[in-house]
Design a protein that fits this description.
Layout (H helix, E strand, L loop, with lengths): L3 H11 L1 H33 L5 H50 L2 H6 L2 H44 L1 H7 L3 H38 L1 H6 L3 H27 L1 H25 L5 H13 L1 H29 L18 E8 L9 E8 L4 E5 L6 H8 L7 E6 L2 E2 L5 H6 L1 E4 L8 E2 H5 L8 H10 L3 H6 L7 E2 L8 H15 L3 E5 L7 H17 L4 E6 L10 E6 L2 E6 L1 H7 L2 H17 L1
Parallel strand pairs: 3-10, 3-11, 6-9, 9-10
Antiparallel strand pairs: 1-2, 1-4, 4-5, 7-8, 11-12
Bound molecules: adenosine-5'-diphosphate and magnesium ion (MG).
């Protein structure tokens, strides 16, 4: 579905009742509107011939007023019905976009900018909504009025006069076509500039502390000023082109009016036309203003809508980076094995993981160590199926990862990412995120295991303290421990800690690790992968894998690795020394 007309067509079919009802009301309005000039023409002729007077005149005027009131109410009613429907299109498009964004993978977000996506969800969808509501109805209204007015002019008044009056109109058609092309270009540009502005605001606000620390506020404000100016210039260009419709309509109608008066005056002179008929003809000509304006307006709304749709639909149709074609709905306990796994990030030369082979038996803990950038986080993300290796296989309980439903796979894994994220909610809610039904006792138990319970009690409202954007700010180590509590509360078979203790002091780290060990022994089958650049986190792991530049360079238990006297052993000595120096 790549055309706006297809989208709107489908939507109109879905809401055919609302569209038909407002269409019918509009037709009512059009008929009543058409009636007025005929009535006025007849009244003028009646007055001129002295056949209309007294009560009859009052009745006629009363009828005119009634028609006016009828037109008013019909107009209000059709707008309500129609916009009620058109706003539904906005709701459904926003929901579609939102749902799509929640399932998109890392590769998608690496290419998209947040501010852009937010602009799409607001500005662009507004434009499409206008095209489905306002534009459809103004188009229908305008076309109906046009046909009826033309019909009455041709058949009801004088066809010669009508033909002459219509002579300038093709020229206006050409002008409209020319202008709408420019509006399309200008609208696309204006939507893009608004996106850029949005991006800037979003990025500035999320990095406001860094900006301030670097003293870049003024530069950032200047950049904002430039972007805002460009966005406003682009909107102005679109508006200028929209305004160009008006003179085109005006010129055309003036020319038509001149021609009408010329020929009409001649016909009246020749007694082939009454003055009343000429009056109602010029009134009809005046009624053509609305259809002409409607045409211009509809064209610009549609061009704006098309420009917005061209930006939006690639997001809605962007293929999911991670296909979810698996059928298995649960992961049975079993070994997790990687065979010759190689992964390279797109547009990156050297692979981040190269020929990784290892096995983790249920109930075991795997330590993953190595210098920053060696591929620890990447490996965990492969296990989560956030990344799909280019070659090699990852199997869990005998099945390749993609044989599982994505949901089932993720439900079997608790992941504490390197950068933990807290939502704007209470601490209790943040911990209970993975298990919304958890009791307070369970939440507190998880917090105790993660060695954050005592810290939480120190906060102003304890577990009810708001954190995140509107609440208090936690230290890095506190954030990490809240994230660990969240993962422990979920209590899944496989726990992945991605340098999740890096900001926690070693004493607390040891306590948390001991708790993890107790948990593991309490229920058979719980496994864990602990990635860390600090070796103290993996000392007790059943198997330790050392990664260097994406390759496995050493494997074994802590003692075996010390004996091998490689990178691990020297790093161990170094970190021990560092720790004892710190303790001094
Ligand atoms: P670690 O967690 O061990 O510090 P990572 O797995 O984060 O290492 O990174 C491994 C390598 O992949 C590094 O060279 C890093 O620059 C690169 N890398 C990590 N994330 C991305 C990404 N999103 N896009 C491109 N390259 C990446
Ligand atoms: Mg990492």
């Amino acid at each position: 579905m790549s055309k706006l007309s297809v989208l709107i067509g489908g939507f109109v079919r879905q809401h055919s009742r609302a569209y038909a009802l407002s269409g019918a009301m509009l037709a009512g309005v059009a008929i009543l509107t058409i009636w007025v000039p005929r009535k006025v023409g007849a009244m003028i002729d009646g007055l001129a011939a002295h056949t209309l007077g007294g009560n009859a005149l009052l009745r006629e005027i009363g009828a005119l007023l009634l028609i006016g009131a009828g037109i008013y109410f019909l107009r209000v009613a059709w707008r309500q019905i129609l916009y009620g429907a058109a706003y539904q299109l906005g709701v459904s498009l926003r929901t579609r976009l939102y749902n799509r964004l929640t399932v998109q993978g890392a590769a998608f977000y690496q290419r998209q900018r947040t501010g852009d996506l937010m602009a799409l969800a607001t500005n662009d969808i507004d434009a499409i909504e206008m095209a489905a509501g306002e534009a459809m109805l103004a188009g229908f209204d305008g076309a109906l009025t046009l046909v009826m007015v033309l019909g009455v002019m041709l058949l009801g008044v004088d066809w010669r006069l009508a033909c002459i009056a219509l002579l300038p109109f093709p020229l206006m058609g050409w002008a409209f076509w020319y202008i709408s092309g420019h509006i399309h270009t200008a609208s696309t540009d204006s939507l893009k500039r608004f996106s850029a502005l949005n991006d800037h605001v979003q990025e500035t606000l999320s990095g406001v502390r860094t900006l301030r620390a670097l003293g870049l506020e003024q530069r950032s404000a200047r950049q904002f000023g430039e972007l805002a100016q460009k966005a406003s210039d682009a909107s102005l260009r679109a508006q200028v082109w929209e305004a160009a419709y008006e003179p085109a309509v005006g010129l055309t109608l003036t020319a038509a009016g001149g021609l009408t008066l010329g020929l009409g005056g001649y016909l009246v002179w020749q007694h082939q036309l009454t003055i009343g008929a000429l009056t109602s003809f010029t009134m009809y000509l005046g009624q053509l203003i609305w259809p002409m304006f409607a045409a211009g307006w509809v064209l610009s709304l549609i061009e704006r809508g098309r420009a917005a749709w061209q930006r939006l639909h690639p997001m809605l149709d962007a293929p999911l980076a991670i296909a979810d074609h698996g059928t298995l709905t649960a992961v049975a306990p079993g070994p997790l094995s990687l065979h010759n796994v190689t992964y390279a990030y797109p547009e990156q030369g050297a692979p981040a993981l190269c020929g990784i082979t290892l096995e983790l038996k249920p109930g075991q803990t795997l330590g993953l160590v190595g210098p920053t950038g060696c591929g620890k986080s990447t490996l965990l993300r492969v296990l989560l199926r956030q990344l799909t290796p280019q070659s090699g296989s990852v199997r869990w309980s005998g099945h390749a990862l993609d044989e599982y439903k994505l949901h089932a796979l993720r439900a079997a894994i608790s992941w504490v990412p390197q950068e933990s994220f807290l939502f704007s909610a209470t601490i209790a809610d943040n911990i209970a995120l993975a298990r919304p039904g958890a009791t307070r006792a369970q939440v507190e138990h998880a917090a105790t295991l993660a060695a954050i319970h005592d810290d939480i009690l120190q906060f102003p409202q304890g577990y009810e303290t708001e954190v995140g954007e509107k609440g208090i700010t936690l230290s890095g180590g506190q954030r990490q421990r809240v994230a660990i509590a969240r993962a422990l509360l979920a209590d899944n078979d496989l726990l992945l800690l991605d340098d999740a203790l890096s900001a926690v002091d070693t004493g607390t780290e040891t306590r948390i690790l001991q708790h993890l060990e107790q948990l593991r022994q309490a229920r058979h089958g719980r496994s864990a992968v602990i990635a860390s650049h600090r070796l103290s986190a993996v000392v007790n792991a059943d198997l330790i894998v050392v990664l260097r530049d994406g390759r496995v360079s050493e494997t074994g238990s802590h003692e075996q690795l010390l004996e091998q006297d490689g990178w691990y052993a020297s790093q161990w000595r170094y970190q021990q020394l560092e720790a004892s120096l710190n303790a001094l």
